[in-house]
Every structure is written in structure tokens, then in C-alpha cells.
């Protein structure tokens, strides 16, 4: 068995998710796993035996949360940063979960994907949290790898959706989380090859606009778009909403994973 990464040597912390049922090591500095990844996992519809591919997995948070929920999922974690990919592999072993880890650029060619075992029409489900910060509004990190991970270009969303369409089987599902103000861009990117789109807005507070959208689309789907009731993270008093708290604790899934 491969030796786990030493948190002290790698400046990692070990943190609990899903009420402590998922333990993850992650860099102490920089972007860290949070609510977005767990909400994405709770929105991903998966059955035992499905091949599930997480694009841009980082340390594996969303994909491993799915694997913790669904016994027998065939999980593949895809990450461009070799150091994060290595930590993702360690996290899978730390939690006793089976996962293949592939170090790969999501914008790579079909041949590159196939050589990594991700050929066309090979996945039942893809989940992803693509870089979605607008480069025109956010100051990027001086580290080019971190910029790729967090800042979206005009082609980022199209490229990631294209890659998902390529690897998904007909009838397979793509689940993603994105900025709420980018809904039009998401629907445009899904316009080719996807249908049966479901959208759930996520609100930080009841009196504020949505901050995120959770989206599920089916390759080859033909059903009309469905907008499901929004998820409220905090109640009017500022305390965590009981439904959101249950989802983050891994006790409840969201509507996109149910139907």
C-alpha cells in the first residue's frame, strides 16, 4: 500500500466533511474545499456500478463524497495539478475508497483522454466545479497553476462541457456548480448535445440573490428545462438552514440527485 502524504511535510491540514465521515487532507494555504464541493456531490445522481468522473477534482472532495454515499461507484478523479492529484489519491486511501486518479488537462484532446482511459461514451456521470471567477473582476494568483484552477476564460465553460459531452454515454448526466449570474452562459454551453436540464439556485440568505446554481443535464435529453426550488444556506436569523445543514452533513441529498 502506498504511503500517505505526511501533512506536516506537505503543509497540509486534515479536515472532516459529511459530519466527519469523510476525512480530507488539503493544502493549508490557497483554495480549500468547502460547501460548493459538497453541494455538487449531493446533486449528482449515481447508482452502484456507475462510472463517475470528476473533472477538476482538486484533492477529491466532491468525487469522494459521492463515493462515500454510493457503494460500488467506479470513480475517476481528473486533476491538472500533479501535487493535488497525488493528495487526492492519498485521500481515497485514507478513507478506504476506491478511485482512479488521472493527471490531465480538461481541455486536452480526445486522444489524450483516451490514452488516460477516458475514451468517448465511457462514463455514466460527470461532475465538475469548473474555474468560474471572471478574470476581469478578480485578481488572479501569481501562481499560474492556481490561476488555471480558479479564473475562467471566455472558453473555459465551453471546453469543460465539450469534454464532458465526449466522455459521457448517451443518457449520461453532467452535474455542475457555477456562479448564479452565469446561468445564461451555462445554458448556452449545454445547448449542443444536452437536454433535460434541471437548475437549482443556491442562496446564502433569503433576502439576497442566488450566489450559485446547481445544474444537471442529460446527454441527448429532450425534456424541457426544470427550475427546482432554491436551496437556502442560512435562515433569516443568520443560522444554518436545517436542510442545508443536513446536506452538508451527508444526511440528505438535493433534488438533482433524486429524480
TrEMBL record:
InterPro entries: SAM-dependent_MTases_sf (IPR029063), Small_mtfrase_dom (IPR007848), tRNA_Adenine-N(6)_MTase (IPR050210). GO terms for biological process: methylation. GO terms for molecular function: methyltransferase activity. Keywords: Methyltransferase, S-adenosyl-L-methionine, Transferase. Residues 40-182 form the Methyltransferase small domain. This is Methyltransferase. It comes from Rhodopseudomonas palustris.
Amino acid at each position: 500500500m502506498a504511503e500517505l502524504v505526511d501533512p506536516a511535510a506537505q503543509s497540509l491540514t486534515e479536515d472532516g466533511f459529511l459530519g466527519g465521515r469523510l476525512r480530507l487532507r488539503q493544502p493549508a494555504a490557497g483554495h480549500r474545499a468547502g460547501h460548493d464541493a459538497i453541494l455538487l456531490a449531493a446533486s449528482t445522481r449515481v447508482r452502484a456500478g456507475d462510472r463517475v468522473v470528476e473533472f477538476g477534482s482538486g484533492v477529491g472532495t466532491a468525487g469522494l463524497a459521492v463515493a462515500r454515499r454510493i457503494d460500488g461507484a467506479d470513480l475517476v478523479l481528473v486533476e491538472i495539478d500533479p501535487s493535488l492529484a497525488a493528495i487526492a489519491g492519498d485521500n481515497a486511501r485514507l478513507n478506504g475508497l476506491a478511485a482512479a486518479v488521472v493527471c490531465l488537462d480538461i481541455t486536452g484532446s480526445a486522444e489524450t483522454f483516451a490514452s488516460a482511459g477516458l475514451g468517448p461514451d465511457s462514463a455514466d456521470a460527470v461532475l465538475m466545479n469548473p474555474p468560474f471567477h471572471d478574470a476581469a473582476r478578480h485578481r488572479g494568483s501569481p501562481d499560474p497553476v492556481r490561476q488555471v484552477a480558479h479564473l475562467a476564460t471566455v472558453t473555459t465553460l465551453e471546453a469543460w462541457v465539450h469534454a464532458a459531452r465526449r466522455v459521457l454515454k448517451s443518457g449520461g448526466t453532467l452535474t455542475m456548480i457555477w456562479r448564479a449570474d452565469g446561468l445564461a452562459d451555462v445554458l448556452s454551453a449545454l445547448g449542443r448535445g444536452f437536454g433535460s436540464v434541471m437548475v437549482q439556485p443556491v442562496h446564502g440568505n433569503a433576502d439576497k440573490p442566488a450566489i450559485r446554481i446547481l445544474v444537471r443535464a442529460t446527454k441527448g435529453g429532450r425534456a424541457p428545462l426544470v427550475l427546482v426550488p432554491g436551496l437556502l444556506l442560512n435562515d433569516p436569523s443568520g443560522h444554518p438552514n436545517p436542510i442545508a445543514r443536513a446536506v452538508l452533513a451527508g444526511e440528505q441529498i438535493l433534488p438533482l440527485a433524486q429524480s
